[in-house]
Amino acid sequence: MSDSEIDLANALRAEVRGYLLKDMDPEAVINSIRRAALGELVIAPAMSSKLAQLLQPPPPAPAARDGQIKLTEREREILHHLACGKSNKAIARELDISHDTVKLHVRHILSKLNVTSRVEAAVFAIEHGAKYGVEPPPKTLQER
Q1: Which residue, 54, 68, 72, 94, is most buried by CB atoms nearer than 10 A?
Q2: Could you tell me if 110 and 31 are in contact, meaning their C-beta atoms sit under 8 angstroms apart?
Q3: CATH number, domain containing residue 113
Q4: Is pTM, for the whole model, over 0.70?
């Protein structure tokens, strides 16, 4: 699986029993599968810090309360893609721009929203995006 916070969050919302990474030791994978078969929730050790971040409540975004967020059209478009759980590479391919350009826009978005992660930005887009002209992700992503 991917080491993306968004992918982990989506998997957990889908009630998976385990989230493993491709680069895990084969014995650890087998052991994890056995534990999951017994009903235990198994998360790759490398994902534990990302899981902890997902469980922390996001800090309030002061700019969001004031309604003073000014996103460019491209930033709104990229924020929509973030809310859909897409990687920078996937966004770059879809919008026909460079990966570095997407990274720059994501940095600007995080700064303008006063958030520290892509997950927080995605949550903001889902909860407040309409107010700022951000197209919501497909319903299937929001309902998980």
Answers
A1: 54
A2: no
A3: 1.10.10.10
A4: no
